Amino acid sequence: MSYPLIDPVALDLGFIQIHWYGLMYVFGFLGGYTLALYRIDRGLFPIHREQMSDFLSWIAVGVILGGRMGYMLFYQPARLIEDPLSLFYVWEGGMAFHGGLLGVIALTWIFARKHQVAPLALGDALAPLIPIGLTEATLKRLKKHENGMVSLIPANQNHHTQIYPSHRVTIQGLFVGLLRFSG
Predict the structure, then answer these.
(1) What is the pLDDT of residues 100-119, one digit of tens each?
(2) How many H helices and E strands in the chain?
(3) Residue 113 Cα distances to 46, 74, 90, 145, angstroms
(4) Cβ–Cβ < 8 Å for 20, 143
């Protein structure tokens, strides 16, 4: 099966290139933010609308910094020790979901304590927004496939890098279920 080759650069302004991969992060954060505001208006979030933009910044830092740190610690520890500044070489790629998750958990806890909100209540309110980020992650994985980094069909090895046909349906089902039963 062949897949279309899509240029990784969505927009080239000459002095700066905007990549599809980066746009997926923007879409994920904006989608989560929009849903969070909707849930705040329904009384399903323990913070106010004014605090949400601040909290979004914390989440973005948690995802990006945690994801990058997780990648370097789990997959390139020798390079990190040899060149600690490589942690900031984001243009080289390398993010780990589990690092981003740990980053968001840590910064959600700190944010909650700083704003005198119950950390677990804030985490519970945040949970229904996660499928939006996972959908964004799936789109990034498709982009990785287009760059030849990931296979989309099951293989006998490296199953953690595969996308199975049910992945999208699972994320959508999780999203609908979390919204339905979250309040």
Answers:
(1) 999 999 999 999 999 999 99
(2) 7, 2
(3) 12, 29, 30, 40
(4) yes
